[in-house]
Amino acid sequence: MKIAVLSGDGIGPEVTGEALRVLDALGLPGLTVFEGDVGGIAYKRHGQPLPPETLTMAREADAVLFGAVGDPACDGLERALRPEQAILGLRKELELFANLRPAKVFPGLEHLSPLKGELASSLDLLIVRELTGDVYFGEKGERTASDGSREGWDMMRYSETEVARIARVAFRAARASASDGQGRVTNVDKANVLETSQVWRDTVREAAGSHPDIALDHMYVDNAAMQIISNPARFSVILTGNLFGDILSDLASAAVGSIGLLASASVGERRTAHGVFGLYEPIHGSAPDIAGTGKANPMASILSAAMMLRHSFALDDAAARIENAVARALADGARGRDLGGDAGTRAIGDAVIERL
Ligand code: NAD
Ligand code: IPM
Ligand code: MN
């Protein structure tokens, strides 16, 4: 079981360090860790955010544990050299088109959510975000507008092929998570305005034909943003594109209580000896405002490691042990500043390890 650890910038190494300590504490046999440079730190050391040796290391592993990339000192660089290109490049090169972002309020921890009582306890959804297309990867550029001013442009596009494969992931996830046998998928787009979304919606509808057991409905993204807060019980699996999924997942994290709690798995079609090849990362970024202060909440990274054990290594029991330990640590008050507490990164890692 080879894991490429790419911890990156800012709080990336701090939170990934705790996830590694948790993995270590589990004492899983046969697990080997390789570390590579990525993001701003890779740019500083190698002149590029995603050096070829890092990409090779990721390719040769069974799973990638990713921290975060981004450094305000790099914001002035030409786009190809910016740290964020590293995560975009990894997703594209490794064909990780499906990003799974679960958002759920742990039972008994409703008070951590800014939502009131019932609303908080009913929040339990999975965002299935397409990850290698959309306006993120369309042609882009800058030109002179007709009035002589600067104009930036980015092409939004999705092909039927790209939509059909992510729709299948969402339908399968809905089937797997349906406790009452009735899986539900809400497709979120902007088909009232965007041609891209019309092709998206038509393709999702067609793909639903081969999943008659799944209840599918459609919602515009603005309405979805509103209803995730006002009626979270309405959602089970949300299927959406790259940009809308990015925004809605940060929104969902705030409804859970903190962005420091949300993990993610990015997968494609490649399988490994034990499961699916994947990249696992918190949904948050490098948080330059708190980097180096020891205040970052490592739980999102720790929970990402749990997702890795489940999806890439079929170690469901070990994954559940981590998830239970996180829930109990939170219940026992191991909360960072992001959750109104004062526990630091290392103390939160310790609290989880003690409860494994
Ligand atoms: P961010 O997610 O880094 O931070 C947003 C806010 O949440 C900040 O106030 C931060 O302190 C807080 N926060 C984030 N994670 C936290 C944690 N684990 N514990 C406690 N507080 C936490 O988003 P941003 O500030 O918009 O972006 C900072 C940099 O990160 C940018 O360069 C951005 O491009 C990059 N970024 C990278 C990724 C990634 O690597 N996948 C994701 C998002 C943003
Ligand atoms: C995320 C981040 C990235 C994205 C950035 C850093 C490219 O916000 O993983 O959510 O937009 O996908
Ligand atoms: Mn994001």
Which SSEs are present, and which pair or pack?
Blueprint: E1 2-8, H1 12-26, E2 32-35, H2 40-46, H3 52-60, E3 63-68, H4 84-93, E4 98-104, H5 117-121, E5 124-130, E6 140-144, E7 150-154, H6 160-177, E8 183-189, H7 195-208, E9 214-220, H8 221-230, E10 237-240, H9 242-256, E11 263-271, E12 276-282, H10 299-313, H11 316-331, H12 345-354
Parallel strand pairs: 1-2, 1-3, 3-12, 5-10, 8-9, 8-10
Antiparallel strand pairs: 4-5, 4-11, 6-7, 11-12
Helix pairs in contact: 1-10, 1-12, 6-7, 8-9, 10-11, 11-12
The protein binds nicotinamide-adenine-dinucleotide, 3-isopropylmalic acid and manganese (II) ion.
3-isopropylmalic acid binds next to helix 4.
Shape-level CATH architecture of the largest domain:
3-Layer(aba) Sandwich
Q: Counting H and I runs of at least 4 residues, what is the number of helices?
A: 12
Strand content: 15-25%
- The CATH H-level superfamily of the largest domain is Isopropylmalate Dehydrogenase
Q: What is the name of the CATH class of the largest domain?
A: Alpha Beta
What is the element string, with H for helices and E for strands? EHEHHEHEHEEEHEHEHEHEEHHH
Word description of this protein:
The protein is an alpha/beta fold and 356 residues long. It has 2 domains: 1-100 and 260-356, Isopropylmalate Dehydrogenase; 114-256, 3-Layer(aba) Sandwich (Isopropylmalate Dehydrogenase). 40% of the residues lie in helices and 21% in strands. The chain has 12 helices and 12 strands. It has helices at residues 12-26, 40-46, 52-60, 84-93, 117-121, 160-177, 195-208, 221-230, 242-256, 299-313, 316-331, 345-354; strands at 2-8, 32-35, 63-68, 98-104, 124-130, 140-144, 150-154, 183-189, 214-220, 237-240, 263-271, 276-282. It has a 10-stranded mixed sheet with strand order 2-1-3-12-11-4-5-10-8-9, sandwiched between helices. It has a two-stranded antiparallel sheet with strand order 6-7. A hairpin with a 5-residue loop joins strand 6 and strand 7 (150-154). Helix 1 packs across helix 10 (299-313) and helix 10 (299-313) packs antiparallel against helix 11. The radius of gyration is 20 Å and the shape is globular. The mean pLDDT is 97. Nicotinamide-adenine-dinucleotide (NAD) is lined by residues 11, 15, 68-70, 84, 87, 259-260, 281, 284-290, 296-297, 300, 336, 338. Residues 246, 250, 283 line the site of manganese (II) ion.
